[in-house]
Amino acid sequence: MEWDDLRVVLAVSREGTLSGAARRLGVTHSTVFRRLGAVEEQIGVRLFDRFRDGYVPTPAGETAAETAARLEDEVLSLERRLSGQDLRPSGVVRITTTDTLGTILMRHLPAMRAVHPEIQVEVAVSNTMANLTRREAEIAIRPTPEPPEILVGRRVADIAHAIYGSRAYLSRNEEKDLLAHEWIGLDDALASTVIGRWIYENLRAARITCRVDALPALRDATLAGLGLALLPCYLGDPTPGLRRLAPKALTEPRSTLWLLTHNDLRRTARIRATLDFLAKAFASDRALFEGKQIKPSLPRARR
């Protein structure tokens, strides 16, 4: 069996469907179907039981998938070690970050392009942590209280949060107690985030007008006047039409902005150059991240 055959078996085992395996491999559904059939015919063993709702590995399939997973780890480890020997700051650097931090990243990329014209940046925007071990990305820009132990990185800034409302909403409801206000919440997909946990701990008795699954939508719903929301200051402070309910950011909750990569890649020239540039670029926005950059012209509501 060739490595490409084992990759097909591993993808089907992990995803449980041909369509899921096709997405993981970047090929068509029919390609996965044909290649899996060819593998089973070649070795004379059925690797998966077919059901209407998906594929379940047989004992032989489980053995093949386990072996494929071990081989994949070895291949990826080799790729990382070889990439770590690259001495030139050139080539592709794949960065993963969140939807809100992606906006700040884009603001700094033209300057990075001027400094490192031979580095080509690919940006993957997602609110889930990409698997840097499997080379889904090489650098992650993430807000997290504690990064995974398998990654190395640089702590750039604390991320402060504050309660925001639209000017129109606060003009109608300024004197209310916090729990008497209408609030905008997060759905279950973001329940484990810093904001999601704060909402659960502090607003269980409050009236939630709507729930959203992304921070830009949380900001937009607040701007539309649907109620109050807890937002990171770097998202709330620059938004015209929003203002804090209190002048100071909350002591809690806080998160931390990290630039992360895999240990095997940190000495790669293009990765090191990118990390060095981004660390300085994002550090220049530290006052914004830490909730200290408030426009003096913004009126402040009484709490």
TrEMBL record:
PROSITE patterns: HTH_LYSR. Keywords: Coiled coil, DNA-binding, Plasmid, Transcription, Transcription regulation. One of its GO terms (molecular function) is sequence-specific DNA binding. Residues 1-58 form the HTH lysR-type domain. Residues 61-88 form a coiled coil. InterPro entries: LysR-type_TF_proteobact-type, LysR_HTH_N, LysR_subst-bd, WH-like_DNA-bd_sf, WH_DNA-bd_sf. One of its GO terms (biological process) is DNA-templated transcription. Belongs to the LysR transcriptional regulatory family. This is LysR family transcriptional regulator. It comes from Rhizobium jaguaris.
